[in-house]
Write a structure and sequence with these properties.
By secondary structure, this protein is mostly helical. It has twelve helices and no strands.
Length: 290
């Protein structure tokens, strides 16, 4: 709004200049054009900064997806290994049971001892496989009782896996499950079956964001709302974490100066646009020596 008013004021200056352009009016026109160029630069810088934040957020989303795929792969590998062990044990047991009764024996005591050893090992292996498969059988029984589909089971399992290594809002987790291929019903079903404190999730996400970039208090609240948290949860999260907002303003000021040039007043205005108070913005500009 301030930029719009300023641009209108500059346009008024330009229109007031006569076609003769005496020295005074030429000076006014040059001053107005410099201001317009400055406004354009600030806009371009703001767009570039927003694109950079969006790029970082997209990178974090990709990292989350990659971690989730690794979790799923490890789970599949573990299940495959258990299945191979089960098949191996069953094969050994079957071969032992089908051994011909008429087989010629030259040393009965030794054969009996060997057979006893094989049977004992087979029983132990079967017992181990049975104990490992017991949780799955219990899950299957629970699923049958509740008439839970396989897709719903997988959605619940993936939702838990995601929450084990990163933070999500409720709507954000639903969208992530849908991105993984689950339909809307299964994604919502999964969230109805897990217990999550969404306020705690908002706190964790706020802390994660501050680990790699700087925010003003209002800017961080807006970012959490963008991630799907409601205003109450976002505000709660920002109030729960310990942050020196003046230091955040200093970090952001340094970031801006790393890729662009600013006047003192221009950098203060840009920091205020990002949500910092005038006092915080002034403090930051003083700290960077501008």
């Amino acid at each position: 709004m301030k930029k719009l008013i300023l641009a209108s004021f500059i346009a008024l200056i330009l229109s007031s200049c006569s076609s003769s352009k005496n020295e005074h009016e030429v000076g006014k026109m040059k001053y107005a054009e410099e201001i317009l160029q400055g406004l354009s630069l600030v806009d371009e810088q703001h767009v570039a900064e927003r694109l950079e934040k969006k790029k970082k957020a997209e990178q974090q989303r990709k990292e989350r997806e990659e971690k989730a795929r690794l979790v799923e792969k490890e789970k599949a590998d573990r299940e495959e290994k258990e299945e191979l062990q089960r098949v191996e044990v069953e094969t050994v047991a079957k071969e032992t049971d089908e051994k011909p009764a008429t087989e010629k024996v030259t040393d009965k005591p030794k054969e009996k001892e060997a057979k006893s050893k094989v049977e004992k090992e087979s029983k132990n292996e079967q017992k181990t496989v049975k104990e490992k498969s017991k949780p799955k059988e219990e899950e299957k029984e629970v699923a049958e009782k509740t008439k839970e589909t396989l897709s719903q089971q997988n959605a619940v399992s993936m939702a838990r896996d995601y929450l084990n290594y990163t933070s999500f809002s409720k709507s954000g987790l639903i969208e992530q499950l849908k991105f993984e291929g689950f339909n809307d019903d299964d994604a919502n079903y999964a969230l109805s079956k897990i217990s999550v404190n969404w306020k705690d999730q908002a706190v964790k996400m706020a802390q994660n964001y501050l680990e790699y970039t700087s925010f003003s208090k209002s800017g961080l609240i807006e970012q959490l709302k963008f991630e799907g948290f409601n205003n109450d949860d976002a505000g709660h999260a920002v109030n729960q974490i310990s942050v020196n907002w003046e230091e955040q303003a200093v970090l952001m000021a340094k970031d801006y100066l790393d890729y662009s040039s600013f006047s003192r007043s221009g950098l203060i205005q840009q920091l205020e646009f990002e949500g910092f108070s005038n006092a915080q913005a002034t403090y930051a500009v003083d700290e960077v020596g501008l």
